[in-house]
Amino acid sequence: MTATASSDTSVGGKATGQRRQGPSFLMALPAVLFFGFFALIPLGGVLAISFMEWNVLGSPSWVGLDNWDAVLTDRPFTWRALGLTVIFVVGSYLFQAPVALLLGVFMAGQQRYRALLSVLYFLPLLFSSVAVGLTFQSLFSPYYGISSALPFEWLPHDWLANPDIVMYVMIFVVGWCFVPFHALLYQAGVRQIPTDMFEAATIDGAGRVRTFFSITLPQLRYTIITSSTLMLVGSLTYFDLIFVLTGGQPQDSVRILPLDMYITGFSANNLGYASVIAVILVAIGLSMSLLLNKLSGSTKMESDKAGA
Amino acid sequence: MTNTASTESKLPEAPGAALEPTKPAGGVKDVRSPKPGKARKPADRPNVVGGALGWIWLGIIILPIYYIVITSFRTSEDLRANNQLIPSSEPTIAPFIRVIENDFFQFFLNSVVVTLSTVAAVLAVSLMAAYYITRATTFGGNRLFQLILLGIAIPVQATIIPVYYLIRELGLYDTLWALILPQIAFAIPLSVLIIVNFVRDIPNELFESMRVDGAGEWKILWSLVLPMAKPALMTVGIYQALQVWNGFLFPLVLTQSREVRVIPLSLWEYQGQFGIDVPATLAAVVLSAVPLLIAYILGRRYIVAGLTAGFSK
């Protein structure tokens, strides 16, 4: 290594040749350019477009607060979509969080069969959301899905067509996709708890339930915060599966905000309105992340990096 | 057999543990080394709740996958006439042939091109940025890091409209570039985060000694930072490859024609095209998952670690 290094004093080496000098900004430039151009500018851009009228084909033109006024006051559906989003986010959380936590703890056990189960649990993560969507679309079909295959009369035949149940079906299918990921996080978290703590608890006579609540849960707090943030913000902006499975139908009963944004923008060609919805989404998402970070009482992720 | 077992129990530690260099030295390392298996938990009574949930969840996971596999090997008539959860008595591969004849390999190739170029660019660009962030003496290494980290919280969905505008103005709409460029940008924050945590741990003396030997920054990047950061690059690469390969929103909004169609979008289009030909649609679903399934079988440890590395702290 040293031998070759001494023979090679390249152009870059001359420029920063003095001792104790770090790399030039050139190193960070590509990342900054990409990130700035396609992530930061769009973030500002979506705010700008929310003040413009733009119907895809033409060019955007300023209309001031018109879009905001229209979306927030003249369009009752915005509030319905917001309500649906809240139901979807809360419902997804209530379904995914306990299942992922229990599964993660279960997977962390040393038994051989659990390792095998963990391998299988992972499978949904290999499918794209479209693949999952198409799978459940046929599985929930009234003509050739599970309802016609299984001999249970009480099973509904209109899983995706009944406005009263389709929201729950969506929460389930989205959970099917994401529970494995969060279970993996919890599994890794549980395995990092020092063994002594469990031993001590056992010696003190704590039963399984007691150990779970007094040791496992408190020790998992950072994992719980990370996983909760990802679940909540993730389902707030979730779009793919619901779009593929339902397109928001029937009767717009699962047209949550991200889907509403897409339909308004790219199906109804009103990108101004859609941008207003997008800005609302960003605002809710960022405040939720910040709030959860504050609630956790720590900026652990940050302090880790800021040091050294 | 012993081999599998040891792989199994080391699973979360493999590349993952190396990614947590900033952990305080207290007892994290020897979590399981002294007495494996025993006394991890009050293991006298079986964990009934966990066990029941574990098996139920297995059923929930497997049923849909089982269904798509058996359905993709039958005809539409067969599907309607017989019980849908029992494999056909006359299996056929005709649905797969219909999918392949419908340019599946073209779409597959597009997905490969998009995924490989995106991941390669993300790795290069993020490694360089991580080198700068950890070693910069001039200005703003830390500030730049904070800025980039902000990007983790930006929801892609919410910025898709301006991205669409930019891509159109650049004349890149409906090209593979339209998929590659923005996806590089949105992959950068998390990638930089993971790689920085790794590069930061390279001992200062190594940099010093290279500099004394007159190595320039590119030389240092190439012969010191790159080899040392390899495990992190591996994890990041796998994670981002999965994201890009399965990504749906960018292709949906930024492309249109058949020539640049990637697999997730092709599934979406097959559905419209095949209509009531459910076996063919599901055969396409199965085919779309095969490459990842093979990758999973070959490198499960890395994939699992790669998926959670950015988040499990």
From TrEMBL, chain A:
<keyword id="KW-1003">Cell membrane</keyword>
<dbReference type="InterPro" id="IPR051393">
    <property type="entry name" value="ABC_transporter_permease"/>
</dbReference>
<keyword id="KW-0472">Membrane</keyword>
<dbReference type="GO" id="GO:0005886">
    <property type="term" value="C:plasma membrane"/>
</dbReference>
<dbReference type="GO" id="GO:0055085">
    <property type="term" value="P:transmembrane transport"/>
</dbReference>
<feature type="transmembrane region" description="Helical">
    <location>
        <begin position="271"/>
        <end position="292"/>
    </location>
</feature>
<feature type="transmembrane region" description="Helical">
    <location>
        <begin position="25"/>
        <end position="52"/>
    </location>
</feature>
<dbReference type="InterPro" id="IPR035906">
    <property type="entry name" value="MetI-like_sf"/>
</dbReference>
<keyword id="KW-0813">Transport</keyword>
<keyword id="KW-0812">Transmembrane</keyword>
<feature type="transmembrane region" description="Helical">
    <location>
        <begin position="81"/>
        <end position="107"/>
    </location>
</feature>
<dbReference type="Pfam" id="PF00528">
    <property type="entry name" value="BPD_transp_1"/>
</dbReference>
<protein>
    <submittedName>
        <fullName>Raffinose/stachyose/melibiose transport system permease protein</fullName>
    </submittedName>
</protein>
<comment type="similarity">
    <text>Belongs to the binding-protein-dependent transport system permease family.</text>
</comment>
<feature type="transmembrane region" description="Helical">
    <location>
        <begin position="119"/>
        <end position="145"/>
    </location>
</feature>
<feature type="domain" description="ABC transmembrane type-1">
    <location>
        <begin position="82"/>
        <end position="292"/>
    </location>
</feature>
<feature type="transmembrane region" description="Helical">
    <location>
        <begin position="165"/>
        <end position="186"/>
    </location>
</feature>
<feature type="transmembrane region" description="Helical">
    <location>
        <begin position="220"/>
        <end position="245"/>
    </location>
</feature>
<dbReference type="InterPro" id="IPR000515">
    <property type="entry name" value="MetI-like"/>
</dbReference>
<keyword id="KW-1133">Transmembrane helix</keyword>
UniProtKB/TrEMBL annotation, chain B:
<feature type="transmembrane region" description="Helical">
    <location>
        <begin position="144"/>
        <end position="167"/>
    </location>
</feature>
<feature type="region of interest" description="Disordered">
    <location>
        <begin position="1"/>
        <end position="45"/>
    </location>
</feature>
<dbReference type="Pfam" id="PF00528">
    <property type="entry name" value="BPD_transp_1"/>
</dbReference>
<keyword id="KW-0812">Transmembrane</keyword>
<dbReference type="GO" id="GO:0055085">
    <property type="term" value="P:transmembrane transport"/>
</dbReference>
<feature type="transmembrane region" description="Helical">
    <location>
        <begin position="179"/>
        <end position="199"/>
    </location>
</feature>
<dbReference type="InterPro" id="IPR035906">
    <property type="entry name" value="MetI-like_sf"/>
</dbReference>
<feature type="domain" description="ABC transmembrane type-1">
    <location>
        <begin position="108"/>
        <end position="299"/>
    </location>
</feature>
<comment type="similarity">
    <text>Belongs to the binding-protein-dependent transport system permease family.</text>
</comment>
<keyword id="KW-1133">Transmembrane helix</keyword>
<protein>
    <submittedName>
        <fullName>Raffinose/stachyose/melibiose transport system permease protein</fullName>
    </submittedName>
</protein>
<dbReference type="GO" id="GO:0005886">
    <property type="term" value="C:plasma membrane"/>
</dbReference>
<keyword id="KW-0813">Transport</keyword>
<feature type="transmembrane region" description="Helical">
    <location>
        <begin position="48"/>
        <end position="69"/>
    </location>
</feature>
<feature type="transmembrane region" description="Helical">
    <location>
        <begin position="278"/>
        <end position="298"/>
    </location>
</feature>
<keyword id="KW-0472">Membrane</keyword>
<feature type="transmembrane region" description="Helical">
    <location>
        <begin position="220"/>
        <end position="242"/>
    </location>
</feature>
<keyword id="KW-1003">Cell membrane</keyword>
<feature type="transmembrane region" description="Helical">
    <location>
        <begin position="107"/>
        <end position="132"/>
    </location>
</feature>
<dbReference type="InterPro" id="IPR000515">
    <property type="entry name" value="MetI-like"/>
</dbReference>
